[in-house]
């Protein structure tokens, strides 16, 4: 399912228009991105939590030249599914 299909399905189940549903979805995504950018954790009960994790600097290898390269430390987004979501999907 892509974003357009998600918007259509959510609009149908909620009774809202596709335009309104798209605005709500985009606002939710933008809010989550903004919170993660500020280093906050976003928890949605029954769904899961979004947070950022620190990835240490490491030495990598260019697969074409086999040359060693330094990969800098960075923050990456991470999602952890809630127990309720895991249980529902497992059934």
Task: Summarize the structure in short.
It is built from 3 helices and 5 strands. Helix content is 44%, strand content 30%. It is elongated, with a radius of gyration of 19 Å.
Strand order of the largest sheet: 1-2-5
How far the N terminus sits from the C terminus, by CA atoms, comes to 20 Å
Average pLDDT number: 96
Q: How large is the share of residues in beta strands?
A: 25-35%
Supply the number of helical segments.
Answer: 3
Task: Write up this protein.
This protein is α+β, with helices and mostly antiparallel strands. The protein has two domains: 1-40; 50-91, no CATH class. 44% of the residues lie in helices and 30% in strands. It contains three helices and five strands, in the order ααβββββα. The strands form two sheets. Strands 1-2-5 form a three-stranded antiparallel β-sheet. The chain has a two-stranded antiparallel sheet with strand order 3-4. A hairpin with a 6-residue loop joins strand 3 (58-61) and strand 4. Helix 1 packs across helix 2. The radius of gyration is 19 Å and the shape is elongated.
Structural features:
alpha+beta; 3 helices; 2 domains; 91 residues; two-stranded antiparallel sheet; single chain; three-stranded antiparallel beta sheet
């Amino acid at each position: 399912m892509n974003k357009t299909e998600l918007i259509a399905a959510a609009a149908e189940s909620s009774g809202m228009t596709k335009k309104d549903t798209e605005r709500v979805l985009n606002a939710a995504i933008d809010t989550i991105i903004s919170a993660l950018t500020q280093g906050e954790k976003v928890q949605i009960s029954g769904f899961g939590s979004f947070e950022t994790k620190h990835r240490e600097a490491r030495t990598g290898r260019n697969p074409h030249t086999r040359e060693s390269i330094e990969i800098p430390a960075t923050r990456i987004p991470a999602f952890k599914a809630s127990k309720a979501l895991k249980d529902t999907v497992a059934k």
